[in-house]
Amino acid sequence: xxxRDIIPLFPLQKVLFPRMILPLHIFEExxxxxxxxxxxxNRPFGVLLADEVERGAVGTTATIxxxxxxxxxxxxxxxxxxxxxxxxxxxxxxxxxxxxxxxxLVDVNTLxxxxxxxxxxxxxxxxxxxxxxxxxxQREQLEELVIxxxxxxxxxxxxxxxxxxxxxxxxxxxxxxxxKERIKLLLHELKRYDLLHERARQLFENSDFxxxxx
Length: 214
What we know:
There is one protein chain. By secondary structure, the protein is an alpha+beta fold. Helices cover 40% and strands 25% of the residues. The protein folds into 2 domains: 6-104, LON domain-like (Archaeosine Trna-guanine Transglycosylase, Chain: A, domain 4, Roll), CATH 2.30.130; 115-205, no CATH class. The chain has helices spanning 29-41, 115-130, 136-148, 155-162, 167-175, 179-205, and strands at residues 6-12, 21-26, 45-49, 58-70, 76-92, 99-104. The radius of gyration is 20 Å and the shape is globular.
């Protein structure tokens, strides 16, 4: 639940999804002031792409979970976590940092993806993380996280971040207001990655490249 209709904004070069962890090093004076305000009043701030600070932009609220370190000059290392999606209805330039009037962005088409689509996405995702070369414990933790989430809402955000979508695709995923369409978008991307991997494997097998000779 969003705490209020006007929040400070922290524009970044990345998309923040709900429930995702966001480590930040706070060093600019305006953001020192902003974080101090959020800490004092226990308020969230909004994260959105830096080139989208305008009406209609979609972002995610974030709350400060932990302050890892405070430096003598006021810099901070903090851990924040994404909460709820929002849409900017107005941008406010009254202080050193930007604020925005916002409203919650809720799903309007709650038509669920079929069990077949969801399972197909999860199978492709398992194949994707198999190729990451993770340690067994890391792999198990990632799979458990995905399985434990509400499939129709939050699992798509975890997968979207893990598979390394570009900002444009992540933005599309965040803005999508249909759970079924989020699953459809991820199925498309995972199938594309799977096809690229298979083509690369075939090219390697059909080539004369011998890694042991290098």
